[in-house]
Amino acid sequence: MTKKHNFNPGPAVLPPFTVDKTIEALKDYDGTGLSIMEISHRSKEFQAVMAEAQALMKELLEIPMGYSVVFLGGGASTQFFMIPYNLMKNKAAYLNTGSWATKAIKEAKFFGEVVEVASSADKDFSYIPKDYDIPVDADYFHITTNNTIKGTEIFEDYDVAVPLVADMSSDIFSRQMDVSKYGIIYGGNQKNIGPAGATFVIVKEDILGKVDREIPSMIDYRTHISKDSMFNTPPVINIFSALQTLKWFKSLGGVPELEKRNIEKAELLYNEIDRNTLFVGTAAKEDRSRMNVCFIMEDEYKQLESDFLEFAVGRGMIGVKGHRSVGGFRASIYNALPIESVQALVDCMQDFEAQHA
User: Fold this and answer.
1) Which residue of 28, 127, 129, 183 sits 20 to 30 Å from the alpha carbon of 46, by its own alpha carbon?
2) What is the pTM of this model?
3) Which CATH architecture has domain 254-356?
4) Hey, is 238 helix, strand or coil?
5) Is 167 one of the annotated active-site residues of the chain?
6) Looking at 21, 150, 171, 191, which residue is catalytic?
C-alpha cells in the first residue's frame, strides 16, 4: 500500500501520538471503564483535561497574566461576529488579506463602521499590504495572519495603539510570538491543533465589558471565562485530542522547535517550486506562507495540471489540489506534517518534470 502524505488544508494532518491516544480514550478513558465520548464534562476526569489543555496553551505560547484561554464551538466563523459583539462600540479597523478576512469584515459591518485600512485584492490577495494607517479611535484592529487559500502569511507581531485581534486558525504554534501584543487571538483547532469541532480563543480580559449593548450569554466571552469553558457542554473529544497535540508539541521542544521545522519544510518546498521548470509560486516571495504553499503550472504547461494531480495522488499525495476558487495546487504543511512528506512531494515534482519538461 502506498504511504499517504496528508497535505489537506483542514481538517488536517495530526500527530500519530494524538491519533493513538484518542483511539485509546475512545475505548476506555484513563481506566474509568467509559469512553471519552461518554464521560461527563462536569466530571473530575474531564475537568482535569480542560485545565491541562488551558495550562499547556499558556505555557507553550508564553501567555502572560491577565489573559484567559477558552475552548468554544462554532468554528472561527462564529468569532467573526462574536468579536465585534464584544468589542465594537462604534468603529473597527480591518486588514483585508483574503477570503477569510473578507468574511470577517462582512460580519463586523452588522455592528458599526468598518474601516478597511488596506487590501491586497488588487493583486488577487497574493501579498500582505504594508504602509497603511490605523484609525486611533478604532475599537480594535483585526488581522488574519495566514491566508490559507492564496498562501500568504504575516510573520510580525504588530505594535499598534488599539487592541489587536488576530485570526490564527492556520498558523498558531507555527512560530514564536509575543502574545502581549494582542487583545484576542482565535482560530479553529482543525488545522494545527486537533480535529474539527473546537475553537480556541486567547483573550485579554481587560478589553472586555466596554460596550453598551447587552450581550447574549453564549456570545459573551466573560461567560465562558467565568465557567472555564463549561457554561454549556464543550466539544469534549476535540479538546481531549487538542491536549494530546499540545503534549506532543512540548515533547518536541515547544514552539521554537516547531518554528525551526516549519522553516525547513517551507524552504525545501519553495526551493523546488523556484527551481522546477513546470511550476511557479503564486504569492509574493517576501510574504510566502510557511503553512499553505500555493503554486500553479507555468503557462506553457497548463494543460498538464490534471495530469500532475493524478500523478501526485498515485504517489500518495493527498489534498494537493488548490482551493476550488483558485485552482492549481496547494500543499498545507502544518506543524504535524513531517519533513519526509514534503520531501516526497518534492521528489514527485522532480519525477514529473523529468517526464514532461
Assistant:
1) 183
2) 0.97
3) Alpha-Beta Complex (3.90)
4) helix
5) yes
6) 191
